[in-house]
Amino acid sequence: MAQTDVRRRLIVSYARPEAFVPLARVILSNMGYAILSEVEWREAPAWAQRTPELRIVDESRLAEVPDDGEVHPVPMILLTGRRGVEPGDPRILGAVRRPAGLHELYRLIQQALETTPRAAPRLPTNLPARCRRGDREWAASVLSLSENGCLLRSVEPLGLGTELEIAFDLPRVGTVATSAETAYQLLPDTGLVFQKTPAVFRRAIQHFVEQNLAA
Question: Which pLDDT score is estimated for 157?
Answer without folding.
Answer: 85
